Amino acid sequence: MADHEESKSESLMEKVTEKFHGDDSSSSSDSDDDKKSSPLKSNVYRIFGREKPVHKVLGGGKPADIFLWRDKKISGGLLGGATAIWVLFELLEYHLLTLVCHGLILALAVLFLWSNASSFIKKSRPSIPEVNIPEEPVLEFASALTTETNRAFKVLREIALGRDLKKFLSVIAGLFILSTLGSCCSCLTLFYIAFVLLHTVPVLYEKYEDQVDGFAEKAMIEIKKQYAVFDAKVLSKIPKGPLKGKKA
Predict the structure, then answer these.
(1) Which residue of 31, 94, 195, 209 has the fewest CB atoms within a 10 Å radius of its CB?
(2) What is the mean pLDDT of the chain?
(3) To the nearest whole percent, how much of the chain has pLDDT over 70?
(4) How far from 197 is each of 49, 58, 190, 192, CA to CA, in Å?
(5) Which of 245, 198, 218, 246 shows the shortest CA–CA distance to 64?
C-alpha cells in the first residue's frame, strides 16, 4: 500500500514538473518569437531609404562631428566665422580684394614695427617664421574636387540619356528652384544659407528623427499618389518612340 502511494506521489510530481517545463518552453518560445519579431522595428520608414545612423551618413569622422555639434566649440566657431564673413561682405558691402589688401597692410605694419622695436631694444632682430602652404592637403583637395565633379558630370549624363524620368523631373525642378533663389540673393548668401543648414538640419534631424520620418512617410505616400495620377493623365499619353506608318 505504501508503495502504491509512493508511485502515486511520484507520478503526480512528474506531471507537475512536465507542466512546469511545458510552461517554461512556451514562455521561452514566446520570448524567442519576441526576439524574432523585434527586428521588425528596423523596418520603420527612414527618409531617403537611410539604413545607417546620421553620423555615418555624413561620412563619419571630424566633419560629421562638426555638423552634429559633437564639439560645440569648433562648430560654434565655424558658424560664427561664417556669420562674420557674411555680415562683412553682404551687410557692410566689404570687397574681398580690399579686405586682403587691408589685412596685408596691417600685418606688414605690425611686423615691421615689431622687428624695428625689438632690434632697437634688444639689439637683435626677431626671427619671423616662414609661411609655406603644404602641398599634400592642396593636392588632396584638388583630387577630391575633381572626383566629385566627374561624378556630377556622370550623373548629369545618365539623366540626359532619359533612362529615369523621375530623376530627370526632380533635377529640372531643383535647378529651377536654385535659379529662382539665385535671382533673389547673391552667391555668397546662398553658400551661407547652405552652411547654416548643414550646421542645423542634421543635428535637429538626429534629435527628432522618429517624428520627421513619420511625417516624411506620409508625405511620400501622398506624392506617390499624385505622381500616379499625373502619370495616368499626362505621361502615359506621351509617345515614347517613333510613330509607325499607318496601314493602308
Answers:
(1) 31
(2) 77
(3) 74
(4) 21, 13, 11, 9
(5) 198
